[in-house]
Amino acid sequence: MKTTIGLVLSLLACTVQAQVKLRVATAGKLVGEARVSQRIVANGGKFVELRLQMNSPASHLTVTQQSTFDAKGAPVRKVMDVVDPTSHSKQQVIATFDAEGANLVIEKDGLRSTKKVSLLANAPRANASELWFAKTKPEIGAKSKAYVFDLNTLEWNLVETVYIGLASTDGFDGAHRIKMTYPDHTVEAFLDDDGLPIRITDSRGPHMARTKTQ
User: Fold this and answer.
1) What distances in angstroms separate CA 100 from CA 10, 110, 113, 120, 154, one per listed residue?
2) Are 209 and 188 in contact (CB under 8 A)?
3) What would the DSSP string read from start to end of 145-195?
4) How far is CA 30 from the centre of its chain?
5) Beta strand residue intervals within the chain, DSSP E
6) pTM of the model
7) What is the pLDDT of residue 8?
């Protein structure tokens, strides 16, 4: 689950409110679906919501994640809710951010805890690629390097995002090809002109693809 959720984060941007539906697969098998909606907010930042439904034999989780970024692409607030209808387990993680790092409130099955995940004050966290194809139109070869907070691992990761250029995929001509390099893996995304995902592939195996009706 953690790997799959991480596929779509920090990849999405758009100029108006929009939504797409994606098929989620791993090892060639369909394991769920995701719906992603996003909008640019009044202060020039971005709001993204991901709804992920896992329907594989091993997992029937429902995950909702909301992320808010400021006008420079820095995180303001992130929330993730995970519900397992089989075990009736519920978990929520709320992250807010200040100069010292991430402040977490974690609630699992009614038990609440807090945690601080520090980041050096001079470490970059404004991710310009969050606003690509929304407020800005990057040149081919454009790069953004920033620390990104992962709600699944509760860690900061230094991520480099590169706009490789135009490509064709899944029947879309002129898709924007983006590559993200994490410390231990890479993610490749193909986006339309609004920054909405067409296909997202993780080097560790899982991938997402837009449904054929969109």
Assistant:
1) 21, 28, 19, 7, 15
2) no
3) EEEEEETTTTEEEEEEEEEEEEEEETTEEEEEEEEEE-SS-EEEEEE-TTS
4) 20
5) 18-26, 29-40, 46-54, 62-69, 75-84, 89-98, 101-108, 111-118, 143-150, 155-169, 172-181, 186-191, 197-202, 207-210
6) 0.86
7) 42
Taken as a whole, the chain contains a residue count of 214
Q: Poorest-confidence range of 65-69, 87-91, 181-185?
A: 87-91
- pLDDT tens by residue, 70-112: 999 999 999 999 998 887 889 999 999 999 999 999 999 899 9
- On the 0-12 / 13-18 / 19+ scale of CB atoms within 10 A, 33 is middle
CA 130 – CA 46 distance, rounded (Å): 8
pLDDT at 71: 95
| Residue corresponding to tokens 């064709």 | 168
**Tokens matching residue 96:** 């807010």
